[in-house]
Amino acid sequence: MEVGRAEAAEGVTRVLVVDDSPVDRRVAQLLLSSSSCAGSFHVIAVDSAKKAMEFLGLNLMDGKGQAVDMVLTDYSMPDMTGYELLKAIKAMNLLKPIPVVVMSSENEPQRISRCLNAGAEDFIVKPLQSKDVQRIRSCSTARPNKGSAPCEAATKRTPPPPSGHHAAGGAASASGRRGHFAGVAMILHSSSAELSQYFPLLVKLVLLAYAVLCLGEILHRWSSGGGGGRSLSL
Q1: Strands 100-104 and 41-46
Q2: % of the chain with per-residue pLDDT over 70
Q3: DSSP line for 93-110
Q4: φ and ψ at 109, to 5 degrees?
Q5: Which residues lie closer than 8 Å to 153 by C-beta, 6 or more apart?
Q6: What pLDDT is stored for residue 33 in this prediction?
Q7: What span, in angstroms and rounded, lies between the C-alpha atoms of 179 and 186?
Q8: CB–CB of 43/28 below 8 Å?
Q9: Rounded-to-integer distance, Cα 224 and Cα 195, Å
Q10: Where do the segments described as Disordered lie (predicted)?
Q11: Assuming Cys at both sites, which of 69, 124, 150, 217 could form a disulfide with 140, CB separation 3.0 to 4.6 Å?
Q12: Which residue intervals of 12-108 are DSSP H helices?
């Protein structure tokens, strides 16, 4: 659970990211915190719908919780799905509900229609990409930037389903694998710059470890030779 404070500066969109996949959570954080979006989003991440409920105060009698401008949730999660979280959020405040964008690695028209009919502002097919950031921003309750596009309908992005059950399952599986690999690649790329600054230290540690091993070998030979009566060599 990677919960942070929901307080943010004026004009900054506070996004609660809900996903049980560490890779997908990290991808969402990287995209919304990228240089092109710097200062536009304040990301709070949790790994389950139940923790999102607690964060929003939906499990409390007084309903007091942290304020966010929108929720970006995965559809398929254990214990409580993103669809169930969507319905709970929409029932929390009927007059001014929190905008919810649902994500899924499976492009199923029935699933998309189900979420949109339940009140979701948008439905995004994973992997999350940089072009989706504007869609997310336009769906929030925060004051939109000038010239921002209106929230796009998810049906515009949805291609017609492939014919045949096996074809649909294969396409969804391939899409999920591509999304996972793309997410891992993004995380590795973002971490490479951070790791580079520790490289000289790692080299020194390796050399130190080698020196300790050599010293241990010398001491072992010295003790085996009866106190150093014979010459020592590595």
Answers
A1: unpaired
A2: 62
A3: -SSSPPPEEEEESS--HH
A4: -55, -40
A5: 122
A6: 83
A7: 11
A8: yes
A9: 43
A10: 136-174
A11: 69
A12: 22-32, 49-56, 82-92
**Encoded tokens for 130:** 């940089």
The residue type of 34 is: S
3-state SS, 177-189, equals: HHHHHHHHHHHHH
Q: Residue 229 and residue 164: Cα distance in Å, rounded?
A: 83
**pLDDT tens for each residue of 190-230:** 555 455 556 677 777 888 888 888 888 888 888 877 655 55
- Helix/strand/coil for 194: helix
Contact 152, 116 (CB under 8 A): no
The residues that bridge with 43 in the sheet, in sequence order, are 15
Query: Which of 7, 126, 142 shows the shortest CA–CA distance to 75?
Result: 126
**Residue among 25, 9, 114, 127 at smallest CA distance from 69:** 9
Domains of the chain: 12-141 (3.40.50.2300)
Strand-pairing partners, residue 44, are 16
- Residue 229, φ and ψ in degrees, nearest 5: -70, -25
